[in-house]
Amino acid sequence: MTGAAASGRGGGAPATSASAVDTGDLETAALETAALAAAQLEAAIRAVEHDIADRSRELVALRRDLHRHPEPSWEEHRTTAVLLDRLRAAGLDPRPGPTGTGVVCDIGAAGAAGPAGDAAESPGPLVALRGDIDALRLPDTKDVPYRSEVDGVCHACGHDVHTAAALGAGLALAEVARHGAGLPGGGRVRLLLQPAEETVPGGARALCDAGAMDGVGAIFALHCDPSVEVGRLGLSAGPIGSAADYVTIRLKGPGGHTARPHLTADLGHLVGRVLVDLPAGLARLSDSRDGVNLTFGMVQAGDAPNAIPSEAVLGGSLRATGRVSWQEAGPKLQRLLAAIVEPFGARWELDHRVGAPPLVNDPWAVGVADRAARRVLGDDAVEPTRQSAGGEDFSWYLDHAPGAYLRLGVRARGAGAVDIHSSAFDVDESAVALGASVLAASALCALHDLA
Ligand SMILES: [Zn+2]
Ligand SMILES: [Zn+2]
User: Fold this and answer.
1) Which pTM was predicted?
2) Phi, psi (degrees; rounded to nearest 5) at 382
3) Per-residue confidence (pLDDT) for residue 184, from 0 to 100
4) Which end of the chain is more exposed for a tag (fewer CB within 10 A), N or C?
């Protein structure tokens, strides 16, 4: 997939009978077709920018509404209803996601199709835009009028911004599809407003399993990045996020008196060994070019200083920057646990909840987003971004189609950065409309390339 626009399906058939058709005429016709497509693309980008600028107050109001009413993973019922209502009001035919929350909505030539719809029958290309809609179980400590009204739940990862931006892009693209010359190449755009990004396994798997990526030729998503100033975008090809799994280890033994550890299985001692030797052993068994990092965040064992416990629990997250190391980590954890724990007479259980693979941006899709972002934000607004150790289930979509994950600048100019997953995280809200425009323009540029 190189995205060579000039040689796409819309470029006309090659000359099979050179004697009957003048090659020069064909070349002229192809150039005219390409020029027409480029002009249509430019007009469509101008139209979505205009539309999104006009509805920027509405998009910020939607973002604030979602922020006031955050819902954690798999519980996004109100959010889903709000999105369905808004898309229906625009004359579209959105469907709830396959798990009951989240929304899938097709925009353009073939009208609305379901997640496993008729993409194969549609003559034009199909591009997906993904927004995630869930919030975190964190208190909101900000003093703002749109502060969370739900105790202990907060949009501290900016998914309210992603949702409003994706919806704004979809509404603007729907206007272009309806009133303008249509979407480039007679194509369609599929909004995937997915639930449960913040959990393992995330909502992306359910959408992929339901066929939401069938026929999709490219997919784009953005995520708030407080290290990037508003009006700018972080974008790089290649690995950009890491695999993130949950690991829970349960150690069991008979328990007993601390005076006689030799007569029991000393779980205090074994907790220490597992804490130190399991991450170290895993690193030694993995290719150091594909970093694997097991970090414990929870350790529970024992009630009294003079009693060896009969059970201990350790919980942590396993992160990997490379797909092979990630796929091989599970069996290695089992081998190491057996070697560490069993000689001391204790038993172990491993609950390895596999998350999403490392996120790898496709070079062609990054080129598309780069063009779109420079067009919308300005030529010097795109900056390179590094691979994060954070997990992101957007990577599952990239098993089905090339795509790009964009880091949207949300830090107010001159302000300090407050990280995502912090109770005080907030954004410069002008990022909502800018994000919508970048997403919409990326979809248009991708359709242009794929046509
Ligand atoms: Zn998050
Ligand atoms: Zn997030």
Assistant:
1) 0.88
2) -100, 130
3) 94
4) N
